[in-house]
Amino acid sequence: MDNYLALFTLAGSILALLFALTRAKNVLSFGEGNDTMKKISGNIRKGAMAYLTRQYRILIVFFAAMFVILSVMAGFGLLTWFVPFAFVTGGFFSGLSGFIGMSIATRANARTANACQEGLNRGLRVAFSAGSVMGFTVVGLGLLDISIWYLLLRMVFHLELPDITAAMLTFGMGASSMALFARVGGGIYTKAADVGADLVGKVEAGIPEDDPRNPAVIADNVGDNVGDVAGMGADLYESYVSSIISSCSLGVIAFTAIGSGKLAISAVAVPMVMAAIGVLASIICSFFVRTGESTDQSTLLKALRRGTNSSAIMIAIAAFPLVYFIFGMNYIGFYFAIISGLLAGVLIGFFTEYFTSDTYRPTRKLASQSETGSATIIIGGVSLGMLSTVAPIIIIAICVMAAYGVSGGFGDANLGLYGISLAAVGMLSTLGITLATDAYGPIADNAGGIAEMAGLDPEVRRRTDALDSLGNTTAATGKGFAIGSAALTALALIASYVQKIQQIDMKIKLDMTIMNPVVLIGIFIGACLPFIFAALTMDSVGKAAQSIVKEVRRQFKEIPGLMEGKADADYTRCVDLCTKASLREMILPTILAIVTPIVVGLILGHNGVIGMLAGATATGFLLAIFMANAGGAWDNAKKYIESGVHGGKGSDAHKAAVVGDTVGDPFKDTSGPSINILIKLLSMVSIVFAGLVVNFHIF
Amino acid sequence: MDNYLALFTLAGSILALLFALTRAKNVLSFGEGNDTMKKISGNIRKGAMAYLTRQYRILIVFFAAMFVILSVMAGFGLLTWFVPFAFVTGGFFSGLSGFIGMSIATRANARTANACQEGLNRGLRVAFSAGSVMGFTVVGLGLLDISIWYLLLRMVFHLELPDITAAMLTFGMGASSMALFARVGGGIYTKAADVGADLVGKVEAGIPEDDPRNPAVIADNVGDNVGDVAGMGADLYESYVSSIISSCSLGVIAFTAIGSGKLAISAVAVPMVMAAIGVLASIICSFFVRTGESTDQSTLLKALRRGTNSSAIMIAIAAFPLVYFIFGMNYIGFYFAIISGLLAGVLIGFFTEYFTSDTYRPTRKLASQSETGSATIIIGGVSLGMLSTVAPIIIIAICVMAAYGVSGGFGDANLGLYGISLAAVGMLSTLGITLATDAYGPIADNAGGIAEMAGLDPEVRRRTDALDSLGNTTAATGKGFAIGSAALTALALIASYVQKIQQIDMKIKLDMTIMNPVVLIGIFIGACLPFIFAALTMDSVGKAAQSIVKEVRRQFKEIPGLMEGKADADYTRCVDLCTKASLREMILPTILAIVTPIVVGLILGHNGVIGMLAGATATGFLLAIFMANAGGAWDNAKKYIESGVHGGKGSDAHKAAVVGDTVGDPFKDTSGPSINILIKLLSMVSIVFAGLVVNFHIF
């Protein structure tokens, strides 16, 4: 039976990839506009590809080194021989997701701008189609990787189910490493270019955003693609795959423990088939996304929400018969676990929007704090961001308790942990379409830049702005899902780690009580990791931005006629600087994330590692929400002031709000999202190196 | 034997109080200067006293209500009858510490300014003497409370040792509540006045700091007293007392468990006698603090360091025979536990200084980030603050492991936990003198204000500035001790909570493993609490500051001749506004800190509470360090720029640094220090309400 289920998942994967292909063709069928637009878009594409090529060149070294290390460990019997290969495929597919998403995004930007010349709906269709390519490529490749490995291990190597899921769990580490590199590198790139361009262009020289005279303008647009598209693609590929494989693994262990091989297969089937059904629902509902010619935010938002909400409802309905047929009525609680995750995602998304959208009180109050200067709006934003952690914490707490309880966790803890992992799968089941609505934002942003640089009719810019601004709102919701699912998946991975330890040696006595000083210290060290990580990435943005600032200042001074528009800026120098700086800066934080759990394990042992993972998950979750929401609120407070309140554009209040926005940039687009990956990568590394840690540790 | 030890502690307490009295007399023997100075000082004193009077009026209602609640619980047998009374005395002495410290500080400010007219050394002596009054009052009253209760319960009520320490543990809750009210209220007051005065006075009207034309100038100086003196006094009283009583309690439990009543007495004796020895060492070494006429920072710092370092060395030497005579060679490990705490305190203090003093790289780099505007210095400061958590986390981790290990924790966990609590006692044993060096800062600050307002010779201001600036450095070290000891004490209190639960009912099976979802959720919720707390207190500062801004603007507009110096500002209105706003705003955060552990306990049960305490301690520690160091670094980066680098005073870089400093104000003086108290209060409340939670909870 299980092979058919895997084939079903494979079919879902192929369906998703085919749909992505049709969407890509659809995007390419639109015209790119005039020669200037083609040239600008070409420059952006060239810069983005140059970045990715160099990034991959570095990562090949990293992956090769890790392959050797893992092979040596496999040679010593600390790992199975599948792990090094699984590690590489995880990284490969994660990178490929980002690459494909970016390829189409850099081809869709000029096309979106061009389509906006004809009308808003046409623009939305191009951008949303391109976003869909990304969304469905991510889920398609994710399911492809999972189902191929499953079939390979099952049909070719004839492994037992627990060995299969244990091996598959490790390719998450490849995906997570890749994702972290992509997120951190891309995040540093995009914000360094953005902050650098703004500080000299907007603030010092007083020229508008996306002005072609600004030497950093192409780098800024490249940044949208390498950070917000390629980085996000790799990131969500990792989230998606991690949630499914950790769920499979926990399910198999839960039912193997109670001696039911048949139910163990069911436990693998549910998350896989859920994902395939999610693909189907997302495809259907993506056709509901269309709009008229009104640029009214609420109409546009309604169009997108129609797509995401209906797919959520469709999945909620379809999941019931799925669980019923696979597990029977005895385990129908798993259905409610899935629903609790789906619901928690929606609720966290709502609260993210509440705290960051200018239609609600918090962001409006923040905007008013700009009237007494930049200091008060900074204090206000930090306070808002910290306060916004309350609702998500409570939602996740209730979701975890509910998923654990309805799955029978109070009778058998293993079932409860499986339930928690199913909640994560439920939350991410609509990823195909939510990611599409998320990924289209940077495309619209790029389109606006091209419209500005190519000197198109201001009406076009107004349309792209409407699309872009909408993208900020959907991005906020998307972030809510990403953070929520990261927390649930991280919890599931901690459980997987615990079970991995017991798998290695049943005789190991785990002492995970908080009063064990090793656990306590682990919690402290783990809690500190997201702080270090955020500090390092912010510092990197600062460093990289400084180098851009200097270069832009130099060009303004040294290139005669640049400010008068008579000479061209040297865009490639800025693109080059950003590339070098971000690639250099991405290495330390990522290596740190990989090395720390190993070092902590070798010193404090597996109990210390468990404490570390719990501490990192808790503060990582909080810090990610704090940074994302503070950044989002500052951004929208600035936009709100630009709409004419508190003196509008150019007023002192506006200047104060720009400071807030600039501070928020690395918060929300570099450090915050990277932390989501960090907390999962820590668990993944711990799982892969568990054999080493169990055999060699000090305490 | 133990009664004699308690009497020895009582003697130490009386010695400390007598020494404080001689210091107070010494301060009062100096002249207050001319009539203007007397008048200004009188106004500050009046404002400060008005604030305290109203604060105490509110707190009497709170303490009365809590007394009734605790009495009702005692009536139902959920508590012993000593608890309500112990609660009230804890609060009373904590408040008294702040009151006495502030009374002398407000009498020493003009005297310091006046003494500075004659010379720097004379000024230092007045200010340091006044600081010593505070330092020795805190330790004296702390030891008085402890020894009186001990003697009362032992000699009058003839209680058994375990019952005595259990009852004494609960008066920590009174001290913690009082401390939190005082820290939060005072912290909001001082920063609202400071930020409000700066935003309108310095930034808008362009008049210098402490200019008598600024209507908020008196409020600003009152703030130094109610926040940095009274608040800090109540705070450190709580730290000191909590560390000693939690140590006594853990020691008694450890040795009662192995059936040795005699060693249990020794376990109580060590922390108490350690404290008394600390008093002696601090008194002796406070005479080493004297300087010549050079205003050179390093000379002044050396004078203060001579006092604190020699007292640390003296205690380190004296502790060895103490432990040897009381416990014998078998338990000499406890000596090393004490030393590990003492050393950890010194190291954390050093790293605090490293990250916040402009003699080191981090703050200098931060200052340079002001060159690209306020956004980059804010990002830089956040990054610096977050990164500065690494060293303290590692130091505390090593200290905990060391104290646990050398005390024999790996054989008997109870001994290890006692060892951790002894480390906290060791860290705070030099409190008498470290607090003196800490408390003299705001006095020097006030003296500078009076010198400015009274129009004294600029040389006087230069001298008070030298004293003040030194105060910032010692305050940084003091903060390191406060945070480090808070973390250790909080850990000891978690252990006390666990033992309290088992004391209530030996049959209760504790499931504190991290994989228990209740514990996990507890960790998440606990981790969130410091974020909420920081958000609320920052928001309060913002709100209160806004009301000051409006009032100052109004006075500038409506009082004719104010700006020309022909009319007097209405200082009392501002003082009044600050008082009202800060008292109103202090209530919610504090009540939240008291109610949350009870609610969490009633829902998640005692296992959830343990998780919550661990989570809160970990993130609380991190957030407190982050906020204190970011704030300190911004402050000193601004001062560094004012010394002439990056364009000096008035340059764009300086303006950017002022924004950083203003953001840092509530970070370092309101939210950060309050979090230290929060994490202990959460444990204290949990301990007191343990009986309720054990009997009634949902999960």
From TrEMBL, chains A, B:
Coiled-coil region(s): none
Regulation of its activity: Requires K(+) for maximal activity.
Transmembrane region(s): 6-24, 58-79, 85-105, 126-152, 164-182, 240-258, 264-289, 310-327, 333-356, 377-404, 416-436, 480-498, 518-538, 586-604, 610-630, 677-698
Keyword Membrane attached: yes
One of the GO biological process terms: sodium ion transport
Record site: Determinant of potassium dependence: 475
Membrane topology: Multi-pass membrane protein
Enzyme Commission no: 7.2.3.1
Cofactor: Mg(2+)
Catalysis performed (reactions): Na(+)(in) + diphosphate + H2O = Na(+)(out) + 2 phosphate + H(+)
Keywords: Cell membrane, Ion transport, Magnesium, Membrane, Potassium, Sodium, Sodium transport, Translocase, Transmembrane, Transmembrane helix, Transport
Class of the enzyme per the UniProt entry, highest EC level: translocase
Annotated function: Sodium pump that utilizes the energy of pyrophosphate hydrolysis as the driving force for Na(+) movement across the membrane.
Summary of subunit composition and partner proteins: Homodimer.
UniProt record similarity statement: Belongs to the H(+)-translocating pyrophosphatase (TC 3.A.10) family. K(+)-stimulated subfamily.
Protein name (database record): Putative K(+)-stimulated pyrophosphate-energized sodium pump
Lineage: Bacteria, Bacillati, Bacillota, Clostridia, Lachnospirales
Gene: hppA
